[in-house]
């Protein structure tokens, strides 16, 4: 199960176009660019047109991603948000993820700690191992 969570997190680091409508139950506070720290934000993203985009050339070892209304873009794959629901203080996202190698369904668990901090993990694993991310600003 830990391997599935790691693969799911790696696939979150993707690149995909913006979709036009939001998944039901999606929390708009997730929209934006996220990385583990402010220094990772500077390494992963650069401002472009009032928002952030991945810095070129893309560092494929950085754990950073951009949440859009129906998609999560990262550096190594992409996830389409299929369903979103809330339970026990967590947002649960059913994701259809893909990268250059293949496809993987991911059941993600996200806790919004505040407007600038979230935790992310695989819903099948213990929340104590979830990773922390902070919002990156342009």
Q: How is the secondary structure organized here?
A:
Elements: H1 2-11, E1 32-35, H2 38-44, E2 45-48, E3 51-54, E4 65-67, E5 71-74, E6 78-87, E7 90-98, E8 103-114, E9 117-122, E10 131-136
Antiparallel strand pairs: 1-4, 1-10, 2-3, 4-5, 5-6, 6-7, 7-8, 8-9, 9-10
Structure, explained:
Helices cover 12% and strands 45% of the residues. The protein has helices at 2-11, 38-44; strands spanning 32-35, 45-48, 51-54, 65-67, 71-74, 78-87, 90-98, 103-114, 117-122, 131-136. The strands form two sheets. It has an eight-stranded antiparallel β-barrel with strand order 1-4-5-6-7-8-9-10. A two-stranded antiparallel ribbon has the order 2-3. The longest helix has 10 residues, at 2-11. It is globular and about 35 Å long. It has one domain. With 138 residues, the protein is mainly beta.
Low-pLDDT segments, ≥5 res? 1-22
| Biggest sheet features | 8 strands, antiparallel, barrel
- The fraction of residues in strands falls at 35-45%
Can you count the helices?
A: 2
Q: How are the strands of the biggest sheet laid out side by side?
A: 1-4-5-6-7-8-9-10
Give the topology string: H per helix, E per strand. Answer: HEHEEEEEEEEE
Tertiary shape: globular
Structural class: mainly beta
Number of domains: 1
Mean pLDDT: 85
Number of strands: 10
